[in-house]
Batch of 2 targets.
Target 1
Amino acid sequence: MRIVIFGPPGSGKGTYATILKNRLDIPHISTGDLVRDEIRHKTSIGKAIEEYSNSGKLVPDDIITAILEKRIRTTLQKGFILEGYPRSIEQAKQLDKMTRIDLVINLDVPDHVIVDRLSSRIQCKKCGAIYNERTMKPRLLGRCDKCSGELFKRVDDQPGVILERLKIYKETSAPVVDYYRTRGVLKDFRNEDPDSSPEVVVDRIMKLI
Ligand code: AMP
C-alpha cells in the first residue's frame, strides 16, 4: 500500500508512521528525516537547505522533490508510508508523477495541542525515535530507549519557529487536503484525546486502512 500521513507539524505524523511501519511491514519515508540526514552529514545539499530547515521554512520544491524521488524509487514495489511530503499542491502534483497514492490519512489536531507538543518534543539523533519531555519520557534521561542514542531538541521546535511553521502549514500545505479529497483517497482522523498513547491512536488509525 502507498500511504501518505498528512497533517500539521506536531500532529503525530512521525510517531504514528513509525508504529504503522512495523504493523504493516512497509518502509516509512519522512522527508523531514531525509532533510536532517543531509544536514547532519554536511552534504552539499545539506549545506544549501540548512537555513530553511532551521528557520521552519520550506526547502525549495526542486531540491526536496529530488531528495524524495531518490528514496521513493527504492520502495515502489513494497509500498510505503510517506510523511512530510507533499506540503503544497505543486508537490502533490510532483508525487502523482512519481507514483499512485492509495490512501491519505489527514490528522486533524487543534493549534494549542500542536504548540504544547512541539515545545516539549525530543528526538533520538541516531534512530529518529520521538519522545516528549512531559508525556512520553524516555526511561533514561537524555537517552533513547530503543538504541541508547543521544536525545536532542530540534532547532525548529523553538516557540517562534513553531508559529512560523504553523503559518506556512495553513497557507501552503492545508490546501493539499482538498486536492486529495476530490480524488476520493483522503480519510480524516481526529484525535479527541491528545494524551492518549500512540499505540492506542494507531489502533484507531488502522481501522481506516
Ligand atoms: P518535518 O520534520 O516534516 O517537520 O520537516 C522538517 C523541515 O524539513 C521542514 O520545516 C522543512 O524545512 C523541511 N521539509 C521537510 N519536508 C519538506 C517538504 N515536503 N517540502 C519542503 N520542505 C520540507
Note: Residues 159-173 form the longest helix (15 residues).
Target 2
Amino acid sequence: MSDATIIDGKATAASVTDEISARAARLVEATGVKPGLAVVLVGEDPASQVYVKSKGKMAQKCGFHSVQHTLPADASEIDILSLVTELNNDPEIHGILVQLPLPKHVDEGKVLQLIKPEKDVDGFHPVNVGLLGAGQTEKALVPCTPAGSVLLAKRAAGGNLSGMNAVVVGRSNIVGKPVAQLLLQENCTVTIAHSRTKDLEGVIGGADLLVAAVGRPEMIKSDWIKKGAIVIDVGINRIPAPEKGEGKTRLVGDVDFASASKVAGSITPVPGGVGPMTIAMLMANTLTAARRQQNLPDEAPLF
Ligand code: NDP
C-alpha cells in the first residue's frame, strides 16, 4: 500500500507569511499605512505567553506595527474593556486579538463583543460569525485555524474541493462549525459529526475529506478512513512519551497518524500540520483588516 503525501503545514505557513510580507510592503509603499496588530494578554498563563510572543514576532517579521499589552491576572473587567476601547479607537491598530482564555472573573463574551468587527482578526465577534454563516466570506474576518485548515485541504486537492464529501468531526464554535461553513462555501457536501453521532466510523468512512477537531489523542483509526482521502488533523493532544525518558511527553493529533498515513491520500502531521497555519492566517487577517479600513479592495485569496 502506498504511503500518503504528508501535508507540510510549516512550509505552507512560511509561503503564506512570505506572501503577506510582500503584500504588506506594497501597502506601505502605496499608502504609507503599516498593518497594525495589538495582542492583549491578561495574566501569566505560560502557554498563552508563548502564543502571544510568537504572534508578535511573526507580525514584526511581516513588517507590521506590532504591540503587546499585558495586564495582570487580577485586572478588572473594566480595565480590559477600557483597553479594548482604546485599541478600537487607535488608527494605527487594524487588528485586535485578545488571547483566550481570560481569567474566570472576566466575561469573555463581553470583551470579544466590544472589539470592532472590522478589527476582530480572530473572527469570533458575532458579526463575523454571522457573515461567515451567511456565506459572506468576502466581508467577514474568518477564524484563523479553520481558514488554515481549509487552505491546506484545498492545496492538497489541487485547488478544488467542489463536490467532495467532507466530514468534520467536532462542532465547537472556534474550529468545527467555522470549518464546516468554509467547506460549504467550497461546495463540499458537509457532514458535522460530534459526540452524539451514531456510527462515527461509518460516517467517517464516506469522507473524501476528513477534518478532525475533537481533542482526543489518536481516536480516529486508519480502518475508518476511506482510501485516498484527504485528512486534516486539527487536534493537538499531549500524551506521555516514556520512550523519550521519564516524565517526557509528545504531541499527537486526533488521528492515528502512523497507520492512517498508509491509507489516506494526503494527511497533516501533528505537530507541523495545521498548527503553524493559525499564526499565518492571523497575519493574513490583519492585512485584510488594514486594507478594508483604508477602503481598499481585498487582494486575491491566498492559495
Ligand atoms: P472542543 O472541546 O471545544 O470540541 C470538541 C468537539 O469534539 C466537540 O464538538 C465534541 O462533541 C466532539 N467530540 C468529543 N468527543 C467525541 C467523540 N468521542 N466522538 C465524536 N466527537 C467527539 O475542542 P476545540 O474545537 O476547541 O478543539 C479541538 C482540537 O483542536 C483540540 O485538540 C485543540 O487542542 C485543537 N486546536 C488546535 C488549534 C491549532 O492548531 N492552532 C486551535 C484550536 C484548537 P460535542 O459537541 O457533542 O461535545
Note: The chain has a mean pLDDT of 97.
